[in-house]
Amino acid sequence: MITKGFKFGMMLQLAVGPLCLLVFKSAGSGGFGQGLLVMAAVALVDAFYITLAAAGAAKFLQNGSMKNTVKIIGGLILIFFGLDIPLGILGFSILPGFRLFQTGGTDSVFVKGLLMTASNPLTILFWSGVLSGQIVENKLTNRQVFEYGCGCVLSTVFFMSLIAFAGSVVGTFLPDFLIKTLNFAIGLVIAGYGVKLLTKKV
Hints:
Layout: H1 2-13, H2 18-30, H3 32-54, H4 64-89, H5 106-117, H6 123-138, H7 142-173, H8 176-199
């Protein structure tokens, strides 16, 4: 079941999202280690959400008003963090103390990874559907559900580590101007994900 979970998780990873871009950007600006810090934050929250889904916490989010609330909060987090990257390059910051563009703040990068991953609790509903489908289709035991979830988290660790390595390599060879331009664009894309989440119908 770990292998099956890993394969399914890798399929999800191919749909590049804001967290993948955050890992790439962090590794490109601060090195492979900072990329791994963000990866660890992403994997930690993923594991937490999968555990909540397996425990049935998704029922709490079935309420329409609750869905809208977490959608708005998640969208705003992505927008603020996304815009903070290009503004940081220009010498401004809308999130003082969490300057993502700075290369020295390893704690800041990890915390931002946690907050951005946790910005959409509605993913609990997704994992609830996935796990429920597996339980019904394959008659999984609790242990097998745990193994499947572990496989999904391992896919995050594997794929994001590759992205962190790629980002660190690019950061080594590209001139500073191109790195800043790339980071500027990534920040706008992350903010765009936030706008998309805000405007998405629940």
